[in-house]
Amino acid sequence: MHPARNYSPMSGVGLMGGTFNPIHLGHLYVAEEARVRLGLDRVDFIPNQLPPHRQDLQEMAPARDRYAMVCMAVSGNPRFTCSPIELDRPEVSYTFDTVSALRQKHPGQAFTFLGGADSLLGDWYRLDDLLGLLDSFVVLTRPGSTRQALEARLDGLGLSHRGKVRWLEIAGMKISATDIRARIRAGQAFRYLVSEPVYDHIRKNALYLPPGARASEPA
Question: Residue 88 belongs to a domain with what CATH number?
Fold first, then answer.
């Protein structure tokens, strides 16, 4: 596994949070594209412990399994790291609390949060305070997606740090964790939607299957 590292005060670090349920090749592609285009030194993947506002907790793999899969998936890229910071807290994972802890530990570090455009349509805990802790909040959009609704929502919140929100259009891969979980339940192929170690971990531990079920996709 590729554990979280100490941060350099002179480098820019991208923070990519999420459930990663499971982490797939689309996550890795988007993170690398953002890292290169933004000139970030690296991207730190931060799996949630208990994500707020999620209604599908019954489909959530255990936090330690999701963290293990993230570490496996990023291990081949020296510019990627995985962090257990949210797993060490038993309560709901709020990005503000996570970034606050990172800011206290690394006061001179430049942090850029990487978030999907759809995530900004939800309710964020202390969003303006979060923006104040970050150097920038980069919204990752897909070609053809409209920014109008998101811009209007942000403008309506009266954020004092509104100027820290930036936009980056990335031609994302059409892979979703929801589809991967559905494929696993149906016994369909998913091998090349995730990295090989993640594929092996899911099958070995019968993740995303009903209790007692066995993985049916051919090895």
Answer: 3.40.50.620
Identity of the amino acid at 27: H
The tens digit of pLDDT for each residue in 25-84 reads: 999 999 999 999 999 999 999 999 876 665 566 789 999 999 999 999 999 999 999 999
Q: Residue 187: CB partners within 8 Å, gap ≥ 6?
A: 215, 216, 217
The DSSP letter of residue 75 is T
> Would you say 165 and 193 are in contact if contact means Cβ atoms under 8 Å apart?
no
CA-nearest of 201, 9, 212, 188 to 102 is 9
CA dist 38 and 18 (Å) reads 20
Q: Return the structure tokens found at 189.
A: 């192929």
d(CA 13, CA 65): 24
Q: Is residue 87 part of a domain?
A: yes
Specify the pTM.
0.89
Backbone angles phi, psi at 168, to 5 degrees: -140, 115
Find the range with the poorest average confidence among 37-51, 128-142, 144-158: 144-158
What does the block give as tokens for 190? 């998913």
Domain interval for residue 157 = 12-204
Q: Is 176 part of a structural domain of the chain? A: yes
Note the Cα 48 to chain centre separation in Å: 8
First to last CA, the chain: 23
Q: What angle is formed at CA 75 by the lines to CA 198 and CA 203, rounded to 5 degrees?
A: 10
